[in-house]
Amino acid sequence: MRKRMFNLPPHKRSKLLSAHLAESLREKYGVRSLRIRKGDTVRIMRGEYKGIEGKVTAVYPESQRIAVEGVTREKASGDTVPIKIHASKVMITNLNLDDPFRRGKLELLEKRVKGG
């Protein structure tokens, strides 16, 4: 199973980059989880950085991880690098709706919840 997961083609691997939605978003859209995108606001739920909330600055589909604003480490050379957090360890608290395709999909989900 692990071998299959690491050898997935890119279009299937991006599906693994999903995270749970906050309760308010879950009620609004009627779905439990969505794919994470750059610009979404997330809260880290597990690990050393638990409780930190920030915007997603980068998404790494090859390792199924994301970089969150404010979660960095200083290298020996003095540079700061982002720490990659696994997508399953965060919760989406605010969505980036700049993309018209994503906005359209969420509007359809919202209509479905309202019964329209």
Could you write a compact summary of the structure shown?
The chain has 116 residues and is of the alpha+beta class. It is built from four helices and seven strands.
Could you outline the blueprint of secondary structure elements for this entry?
Elements (H helix, E strand, L loop, with lengths): L1 H5 L3 H4 L4 E4 L1 H7 L3 E3 L5 E4 L8 E8 L4 E10 L5 E7 L3 E5 L5 H15 L2
Parallel strand pairs: 1-7
Antiparallel strand pairs: 1-2, 3-4, 3-7, 4-5, 5-6
Summed over residues and divided by their number, the pLDDT gives a mean of: 93
The major sheet is characterized as:
7 strands, mixed
> Compute the gyration radius: what is it?
16 Å
Q: Largest beta sheet: what is the strand line-up?
A: 2-1-7-3-4-5-6
Strand percent estimate: 35-45%
Range of helix content:
25-40%
Number of helices: 4
Shape: globular
The structural class is: alpha+beta
The oligomeric status of these chains comes to single chain
How far is the N terminus from the C terminus? 40 Å
SSE string: HHEHEEEEEEH
Unreliable stretches: none
Q: Could you give the count of β-strands?
A: 7
